[in-house]
From TrEMBL:
<comment type="function">
    <text>Is probably involved in a pathway contributing to genomic integrity.</text>
</comment>
<keyword id="KW-1133">Transmembrane helix</keyword>
<keyword id="KW-0732">Signal</keyword>
<dbReference type="InterPro" id="IPR005595">
    <property type="entry name" value="TRAP_alpha"/>
</dbReference>
<feature type="region of interest" description="Disordered">
    <location>
        <begin position="197"/>
        <end position="232"/>
    </location>
</feature>
<feature type="transmembrane region" description="Helical">
    <location>
        <begin position="167"/>
        <end position="185"/>
    </location>
</feature>
<keyword id="KW-0472">Membrane</keyword>
<dbReference type="GO" id="GO:0005789">
    <property type="term" value="C:endoplasmic reticulum membrane"/>
</dbReference>
<feature type="signal peptide">
    <location>
        <begin position="1"/>
        <end position="24"/>
    </location>
</feature>
<keyword id="KW-0256">Endoplasmic reticulum</keyword>
<keyword id="KW-0812">Transmembrane</keyword>
<dbReference type="Pfam" id="PF03896">
    <property type="entry name" value="TRAP_alpha"/>
</dbReference>
<feature type="compositionally biased region" description="Basic residues">
    <location>
        <begin position="223"/>
        <end position="232"/>
    </location>
</feature>
<protein>
    <recommendedName>
        <fullName>Translocon-associated protein subunit alpha</fullName>
    </recommendedName>
</protein>
<comment type="similarity">
    <text>Belongs to the IRC22 family.</text>
</comment>
Amino acid sequence: MRCAALVRMLAAAAVAAGTALAAAGDEAPELNVVTTFPNNPFSLVQNGRANRVVLSISNPPGADRALVLEEVSGAFLDPKKQDGQRNRVLRNMTATRIKNVPITNVGGQPLQVPYDFYSEFKPQSLDVEFRVKVLDQGNSRRYNLGVYRGSVLVEEPTQSLFDLQLLSVYAVMALVVAGAAYLVYQQYLAAYFPKAPRKRTQAPRSAQPAATHDEWLPEQNVRARKAVPKRR
């Protein structure tokens, strides 16, 4: 009797342990993630340009789950609204696909993942969040994990007067203004400034005496003409 009861207790404990392990395997994994804005201590975001963050990802100490990084994404959030409210997400950022990169420490250092995103908002303060999609190779499940949430300041990029894009705009505007001025002149002002008629001048013809050409005469005829005495 005691042996049978002991066997039942061990079986129940094994089932409970298996259930606990399965539940633990189904839970979303935990990651240690540090998000930095390189050379951007004030988290400034410029419109129309690539803005970069770097995610330093590592497994917590003692974690033994085989995780693979598949995607990095993000979103701009309205700071005046709470999660779950309508229009809380202003715009989703373009996701970057990553080809099965294992989340392991490389040489004792966390995995470094750069992520570029773009903004097209008027200058203001907004909230942003970044997420990663990982694959658990133990149970073949994918998890979409939030790894960062903070505030950024959106601003217009500073431009120089000698910027190539601005110079091209200036050139196009100058051509448009010159063309419009020419059309206005031809349409309204050309009649008030008639062109003076051109006078054609001909060079005077100088009278030249007819020259005697003896080159084509035979030599004896030329001698005969020279030998004829002049009449007095």
